[in-house]
Specification:
Layout lengths: L15 H11 L7 H21 L3 H11 L6 E2 L6 E2 L1 H13 L6 E2 L7 H14 L4 H21 L3 H4 L4 H4 L1 H12 L4 H11 L20 H17 L15 H6 L24 E2 L10 H14 L6 E8 L4 H4 L3 H5 L4 H4 L3 H11 L9 H4 L2 H7 L2 E5 L11 E7 L4 E6 L12 H12 L5 H12 L7 H9 L3
Parallel strand pairs: 5-6
Antiparallel strand pairs: 1-2, 3-4, 5-7, 7-8
Helix pairs in contact: 1-10, 2-4, 2-6, 2-20, 2-21, 3-4, 4-5, 4-11, 5-6, 5-9, 5-11, 5-22, 6-9, 9-10, 9-11, 10-11, 13-17, 17-19, 20-21
Length: 472
């Protein structure tokens, strides 16, 4: 590591895990600014809407059927009214939030933190019969940790084939579960060390659109709850969880460790609230595709483009995301299923150019197999963007060469939803209502919206859990 990323962990020095533990143990709701708490409630509302929409898909039904084989329990499953053991319910709820790849992203950390932090906070707070305010405070604590731990790697986890949402999420969930169960700072440090042997998440799904990415955030919650419970009972974990010789970054990043800045893991704790920097997705696909999809839509609308006019298309994207949304090229130009399409620059651009949209309806089989859309996707090549702002923004540019010789281009340097171009609270509510309406009546949608936005107003965690499950 370079000098900036080296942290002294000599005998007696405070480790990253200890600093994070002290922050989480001492965090009180009253010390969190109102703007951060308001944003957190809207992030949770967004997650709930996506979870409800996910209940309408086959992947959710099959996953719930599998988890039901482990028996029933006190945990509530969003939108289904099913009861599962606590950890299985957390896993299922994380799966639902992340199921459509429509959930929020912390841009610098390249992590979908809400998908693991919220289900863990709700499940544990309900199990301990705590308040909605306790739930919200622990959720924010987890978000502050997950986003910083992800940011340390500077996008490196994706380059080595790991998905930080599952990998890093386990540590945040261990702290959430531990805080809600009253663990001491020492126990919280052990919980993080234990989670080091549990967190996981492979990007191999990118090869064929497999479903495995969807389980990563829920599995992070399972790991976190397990680690915290072991620590509560005296189980000991490694001390140098993050900076150690075989700690998180050394074991998962290889030579990219040199680019890390470990100081990011604890900078600004209690002063800078990363939860306010989380980007809410305007499109149901990998955030890396959004700028190019929006650029394609803008070109179509501005110039009245039709498929038969297009000779060739170039998409300029950050070099750090090529492995995720551009390769292997043949797979990306001909997605095998909707999940494959959500991680495809060629398909996102083709959808924008042909249909003027890239929403859930464009991920249905009739569009995935549409000859016109696939014909344009085959004409889309990628180039590394020399002016990329990654990871602050997920920049993108589309350049269309027409058969009449003209060349048209549009650039989205700052992707919609980014921290400096955020969706408003009203826009988040509208997105929630659109998604939730796929599964519920208008009156049920109204009730859930009021419950989530009223988490600070006397709502109990058990009441919220029951309402989201359709029991309350």
């Amino acid at each position: 590591m370079n000098e900036q990323s080296t942290i002294d962990v000599a005998a007696g020095a405070e480790t990253i895990a200890q600093k994070l533990s002290g922050f989480v143990e001492g965090l009180q709701g009253a010390t969190i600014p109102g703007a951060a708490r308001e944003r957190a409630r809207h992030l949770i509302l967004d997650a709930v809407g996506i979870a409800l929409a996910s209940t309408q898909y086959d992947f959710a039904h099959r996953t719930l059927s599998a988890l039901r084989e482990f028996g029933e329990g006190p945990g509530e499953v969003i939108g289904y009214g099913a009861r599962l053991p606590l950890r299985d319910a957390v896993m299922m709820n994380g799966f639902l939030v992340h199921g459509l790849d429509y959930d929020d992203t912390h841009t610098r950390g390249v992590i979908h933190a809400t998908a693991s932090c919220f289900p863990t906070a709700m499940g544990m707070a309900a199990a301990e019969n705590l308040s909605g305010r306790d739930l919200l405070t622990s959720y924010i604590a987890g978000m502050e940790v997950a986003t910083r731990l992800g940011s340390v790697a500077k996008g490196g986890f994706h380059q080595t084939g790991f998905h930080p949402t599952g990998l890093v999420g386990a540590f945040a969930c261990a702290l959430i579960a531990g805080k809600l169960r009253g663990l001491t700072a020492k126990q919280l440090s052990h919980a993080q060390g234990i989670a080091l042997s549990m967190g996981s998440g492979s990007l191999e799904f990118l090869q064929d659109g497999a479903w495995t990415k969807r389980i990563h955030p829920g599995w992070a919650g399972v790991c976190g709850i397990t680690a915290a419970t072991l620590a509560r009972n005296g189980f000991q974990g490694p001390r140098e969880t993050y900076e150690g010789r075989f700690g998180l970054y050394a074991s998962h990043l290889g030579p990219l460790l040199e680019a890390c800045d470990l100081s990011i893991a604890t900078e600004g704790l209690g002063e800078i609230w990363e939860v306010t920097q989380v980007a809410v997705k305007p499109l149901p696909a990998c955030h890396f595709t959004h700028a190019c999809a929006d650029s394609a839509i803008a070109l179509r609308n501005e110039h009245g483009l039709r498929p038969e006019m297009i000779e060739h298309v170039r998409a300029l994207i950050p070099g750090e995301v090529v492995k995720t949304v551009c390769e292997p090229v043949r797979n990306k130009q001909r997605p095998q299923n909707s999940y494959d399409a959500q991680f495809s620059i060629p398909f996102a651009v083709a959808s924008g150019l042909v249909h003027g949209r890239f929403g859930l309806s464009e991920l249905e089989p009739e569009i995935l197999n549409d000859p016109e859309t696939l014909s344009i996707a085959r004409k889309v090549d990628y180039e590394v963007d020399p002016n990329s702002a990654f990871p602050k923004y997920y920049s993108g540019e589309v350049i269309v060469k027409l058969k009449d010789g003209r060349e048209l281009r549009h650039r989205e340097h700052m992707n919609r939803g980014a921290s400096d171009r955020p969706l408003s609270s009203a826009e988040i509510i509208a997105k929630f209502r659109e998604n939730a309406a796929m599964a519920l009546s208008a009156s049920a949608v109204d009730r859930i919206e009021a419950a989530v936005l009223g988490l600070d107003d006397g709502m109990s965690a058990r009441s919220l859990s029951a309402i989201l499950a359709g029991r309350g």
